[in-house]
Write the structure tokens for this entry.
Amino acid sequence: MDEKLIKYILNVFIFVLLIFAVIIFINSMGINLNVEEPTKKLLQVVTMEGFDGSTMPTGATAFCESYRGSSAQLNTECGRLTQKNCNETSCCVFTNNKCVAGNANGPTYNTDNNGNTNTSPYYFQNQCFGSNCPS
């Protein structure tokens, strides 16, 4: 065989090995060379409504409005409030070092797990109510 032919075959062989090496590298790195348009996923739909400022509840009022008619859920959500935030609402009271659903008349659920009536003072909008209020 001619020496030029051997060099040519060797160069072709090296080129083919190089192509295979690049393919193996791309595959091992997880690179996708497909030119497909990525599928689009809907993540969330948000509905925005316009309100005039006079009818839109804000802050503590919005908190109470969002749980109107669901006392048990309101009681759970009031329990997540700090004492300061609890006293800013019109639907929660602070008693026994925790915030619970209630109003100026007292806690919504005024008994413990044994059915005993809670006689502890409670704070509604930073005012103490009950017979045991500190002076």
Q: What stands out?
A: The chain has a mean pLDDT of 82.
